[in-house]
Amino acid sequence: MTLTLNSPCDMHLHLRDGAMLENVAPLSSAQFAAAVIMPNLLPPVCTTSEALDYQARIRAVCGESFLPLMSLFFGAHLTKDEIAAAKQAGIRLTKLYPQGVTTNSDKGVSAILCEQNLQIFEMLQDAGMILCIHSETNGFVLEREHSFLPIFVEIARNFPRLTIIMEHISDARSLKFVESFPNTFGTITLHHLLFTLDDLLGSALNPHLFCKPCVKLPRDMRALRRVAFSGNPKFCFGSDSAPHLRTHKECAQCGAGVFSAPVALPALAELFENHGALQSLSAFVCENAPRIYGFTPPQKVVRLRKARFDVAAEYGGVVSLFAGKSLSWILCD
Amino acid sequence: MTLTLNSPCDMHLHLRDGAMLENVAPLSSAQFAAAVIMPNLLPPVCTTSEALDYQARIRAVCGESFLPLMSLFFGAHLTKDEIAAAKQAGIRLTKLYPQGVTTNSDKGVSAILCEQNLQIFEMLQDAGMILCIHSETNGFVLEREHSFLPIFVEIARNFPRLTIIMEHISDARSLKFVESFPNTFGTITLHHLLFTLDDLLGSALNPHLFCKPCVKLPRDMRALRRVAFSGNPKFCFGSDSAPHLRTHKECAQCGAGVFSAPVALPALAELFENHGALQSLSAFVCENAPRIYGFTPPQKVVRLRKARFDVAAEYGGVVSLFAGKSLSWILCD
């Protein structure tokens, strides 16, 4: 059996830089026609010029058949001129991190609804930019996404022509808010579709499943599966694949991030198939994103076949989801 | 300032065996007059003879001024004769582990309320034994203690003369059940008084705070603090200190257990003092347990003074709570 996907897209991807970029980027470009590249490098990617340089480094690794959709780190540096320059260069995404909520977010925003930010939202709206939000507060870990909802709703209501993406939705209670505004959409990761706190800490603690926002309750996973398996047009795939060296995961201060790049499409195919939802996979990974973000990915036909895929124990020192295990779908060469 | 405690007791303690026993037991016997020793060795401590042998090994390390209150692993081996032999030898405790819920519980009980177990509960009751229960099911990790409550209540109701201890209470919803039966009591750990899921996985993931039952929500911690800080006579201290080598914590399959033995009394003193509850510390660590369990601990005066206690980075390869940090109370020599 073969599964054919036309230009699948990963709308939330961490590629890092340097040797790590060279290590992990080919794993994504082998499966996807395009990906939204997160800007939380150290220092973050703030300007059009920095984003274009970063894009060139990615293209040098992945070639021209893979489109890295660059995003700018949200902040006071997003002046009218900077936004105009971004648009001019074909960059339409900005990523807002509340300060301190995840890896490399120290330079994120502390007072999200301050006057200065409202002006930036206005400029982004006027320019037809897209605002991607890591939608968590600094509150109790299981309530962070939920307690961010009033802020999300405030932005959505006040900037109705601004396309807003709630990234890596983890909480069932977020879904109806994302669905209720014409200008709001969401990305959903593989790991939030697959796992709950039971998988992270129900038997042995598994640091490789530790991420932000953390995996949550069975009812959250079920609700996310419902929208993904139905091909709901408000939601699309964003892996949030985030490589950390094994030594940064298996330690006393484990960094947040799940590395799923090597297995993204095979694991999605297996999950959707196991739940009788294979017919919706294309909506979730191919069709919804271009419509939501208003872009055309490069033509790229990706084929999976039903055959055993033995996932490597490590990819250059990084441990993937399903490391050392096998999946039932494999990417065709 | 000095704090004097008369015969403090740790009513839930893992000492392991061999080199680990030699490493960790002196840390507890330096602070406590008596401790309930958990039987989940590999293989578990099932018979009176095994418990007496284990007790002798503990006494060889700790000396005679420390009373190891031995417990037998609950199971079908608890015949009427075995129970009589235990009583004869001064062993009054048995620990029930549901199968698979925590470290070394593979030989635990699968059908807790089966006819055979009901007969054992009856014999334990007739013999005046005490039943200590790891009160968790194998359900979703945050609901395991709560979903065990019907089983706990069933045993408490049907064996009203059997003293039953709910070990390491972690869920606020358990407290009223423990309080509502004359024959039920609870132990509370240091780490469940100090931490929530936020501490385990709110910023970096900290494997040294991973335990069963896992630390839970702020409302759970607050409720546990309320009963501990009030000196509530239904509850007493049980550290559940459980040593694992650093290499078994900082890895891909982190074992469950928090090692708090080196800091137990200093950390309790600091916590109770910070919440204006120092006057209740003696009830929690000294007075409640002898009354609940009906035993007399050895006379042992333990003094703490208000001085900086620098906690070691490791104790023989085991990482303690507050490792590398300092506390404001220290044990007097």
Element layout with pairings:
Two copies of one chain form a homodimer.
Chain A: E1 2-6, E2 9-13, H1 18-29, E3 34-37, H2 48-62, E4 67-73, H3 80-88, E5 93-96, H4 115-127, E6 130-133, H5 144-158, E7 163-166, H6 172-180, E8 184-188, H7 190-194, H8 197-201, H9 218-229, E9 235-237, H10 246-249, H11 264-274, H12 281-293, E10 301-310, E11 326-331
Parallel strand pairs in A: 2-3, 3-4, 4-5, 5-6, 6-7, 7-8, 8-9
Antiparallel strand pairs in A: 1-10, 10-11
Helix pairs in contact in A: 1-2, 3-4
Count of β-strands of chain A: 11
What Rg of chain A do the Cα atoms give?
18 Å
Quaternary status of these chains? homodimer
- Spatial arrangement of strands, main beta sheet of chain A: 2-3-4-5-6-7-8-9
Number of helices of chain A: 12
User: Spans of chain A with pLDDT under 50 lasting ≥5 residues?
Assistant: none
Instruction: Give the DSSP E fraction of chain A (strand runs of 2 or more residues).
Output: 15-25%
Helical amount of chain A: 25-40%
Mean pLDDT of chain A: 97
| Largest protein-protein interface | A-B, 27 and 27 residues
Order of H and E elements of chain A:
EEHEHEHEHEHEHEHHHEHHHEE
Q: Characterize the biggest β-sheet of chain A.
A: 8 strands, parallel
Q: Which structural class best describes the helix and strand composition of chain A?
A: alpha/beta
